Amino acid sequence: MPGVTRAGGRSNTRYVMLLHLPEGYMPSLVRDALITKIQTLPEQLRRSLTWDQGSEMHLHAQFTAAATMPICFCDPHAPWQRGSNENTNGLLRQYFPKGTDLTVHTAEHLDMVAVELNDRPRMTLGWDSPAERMTQLLNTNHSQQQCCNDR
């Protein structure tokens, strides 16, 4: 589903971040929205982003240069290479049925949907929610930084 990205760190959190793209999915719009969204994450969580072969990522090199975060592309017609993304797309279909014009939804509405998805426990996370896993990851990274800074 275009306009969807997830953030993860050393262990996958399944954390969902949605992009607001009211003017469509042109590569320059996706690049700019993705840069803005990714830069809200702490730098240590910006490891890589996995994407399909969609034309909206035509400017991936510019994104990588601006966000210092490489994009990994899946092989064509290989959705199993992005299983978590496919699962997230299924969850998003509960809010946005296939064919929904996502450009009509506000950024606030997309943020509300992301919060609901991130608060939803997942079996694959041992029934933790993505929000809980992200908090744990941020606390772990903060503790490690404190430790290293104390030396």
TrEMBL record:
<dbReference type="InterPro" id="IPR012337">
    <property type="entry name" value="RNaseH-like_sf"/>
</dbReference>
<dbReference type="GO" id="GO:0015074">
    <property type="term" value="P:DNA integration"/>
</dbReference>
<dbReference type="GO" id="GO:0006313">
    <property type="term" value="P:DNA transposition"/>
</dbReference>
<dbReference type="InterPro" id="IPR001584">
    <property type="entry name" value="Integrase_cat-core"/>
</dbReference>
<protein>
    <submittedName>
        <fullName>Integrase core domain-containing protein</fullName>
    </submittedName>
</protein>
<dbReference type="InterPro" id="IPR001598">
    <property type="entry name" value="Transposase_IS30_CS"/>
</dbReference>
<dbReference type="GO" id="GO:0005829">
    <property type="term" value="C:cytosol"/>
</dbReference>
<dbReference type="InterPro" id="IPR051917">
    <property type="entry name" value="Transposase-Integrase"/>
</dbReference>
<feature type="domain" description="Integrase catalytic">
    <location>
        <begin position="1"/>
        <end position="138"/>
    </location>
</feature>
<dbReference type="GO" id="GO:0004803">
    <property type="term" value="F:transposase activity"/>
</dbReference>
<comment type="similarity">
    <text>Belongs to the transposase IS30 family.</text>
</comment>
<dbReference type="GO" id="GO:0003677">
    <property type="term" value="F:DNA binding"/>
</dbReference>
<dbReference type="InterPro" id="IPR053392">
    <property type="entry name" value="Transposase_IS30-like"/>
</dbReference>
<comment type="function">
    <text>Required for the transposition of the insertion element.</text>
</comment>
<dbReference type="InterPro" id="IPR036397">
    <property type="entry name" value="RNaseH_sf"/>
</dbReference>
